[in-house]
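Two proteins were folded this term; both appear here.
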Amino acid sequence: MPYPLPQFAEPEPYGFIYIGFQAEPAQRSPVHTRTPRRQRAAAQLVQAVPALVRREDVVSVRIFRAVFIPPLPGAPRHDLAMLIRTTRVDQLETVRTCDEVSAFAGEQILAGVNVARIGDTEARADGAFLFNHFTAAPGTDAEAVWRSVTGWYTTKTGVDNSTALRPIGPSPFALVNYARLPAGPIRFLSGQLARPSFHRFVRATLDAHGVHALPAVHRLVHASA
């Protein structure tokens, strides 16, 4: 292994539900600005959160606003996103289909579990948050491939946290990595692309296993806990 693997923390015991919302029509530009329509949609989600967190099977709810989404085929291009933690994993289906969640009318991207973790992604609320969506060839262990490249990120980019979510049941993605970035989205994404070692190691490793990364960078709008 050319880069030392980071110290992995104990995975979180909760279930996770990741939902995307489209406030504005889909756009080609990767930059997502804070338009009045997006602000109104975010405010409506925030107003609906208390009813959801009053449920005993919900631990927390976070709402995000997209700021930068590279125009890659297959990447989710939602204006807003919601991340719900359920008290237990076996409550995922109950919460996913409850009236409070159904009322949001969003696209449920993933319902799953945290399979691996580095540091604490939510230690701070400021900064940019990455949702990196991984597709994988059938039979590929996307978690193992992701683990194998984490050392490059912690060594080369200063990322000190990561929360890897694996779906339980149908999802277009084999894994979604949720992480707080050490820099703004353009600086971070362009910075990794400018490093030859990113192409020699990270991209080559993903390509060799038929894994593709589709990043979307957001900022936190609201946190219930």
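Next, the second protein.
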Amino acid sequence: MSPVSKFGATHSLRRLPVQERSAARVRRMLDAAADLIEEVGYDRLSTTAIAQRADVAIGSVYQFFGDKRSLAEALSQRYIDLYFERLAARFDAEPPADWRGGVEAAIDEYVQMYRTAPGFRVLHLADAIDPGRADAVTTGGDVIADQILAGLAQRFGIGGDDELNKTVTVAVETGQALVRLAFRRDPEGCSASIAEAADVVCDYLGRRLP
């Protein structure tokens, strides 16, 4: 794992921590933000509360993050990194026989992130924190789609083109929306809705993948 992936995307950090002591402070701030987002939501999140929960000076927050949005973006990127680390470990331990098995595993790991990662279900990978911002960053769905395309090429020999890129992006956004619906229906995730999410995404991809 690269140093950046431990803390979030470079665009979200004012500076990268060099010393381990600084790195530990950044990790505490991200952990604190995750817990607070889970407890009070993004709108009520504040840099003051993050500093207090992380037991750091408020100046330390602004040393690395411009505002609470940049901190949430870094947290979302950390979640994306963790998601793909978990998915890669699962594929290495038990390689899927085909892309359908890969899709089912990808949705299952996404569901597990909802269940275990504080703040994950609230953030939705930063794709709706401030959609009206003119310089909005790439959404979590876009990043996930890019990495899935790379995985399709590496593991199943399915090459990428513009049409495939659009197809995978639609599949990712659809899967994310259906998983969100499953957790609105049941805080632990409605099992029938999760199964339906896998069926819908696989059916859609099955009509378009070679």
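The longest helix spans residues 68-93. Residues 1-11, 128-134 have pLDDT under 50 and may be disordered. These notes refer to the second protein only.
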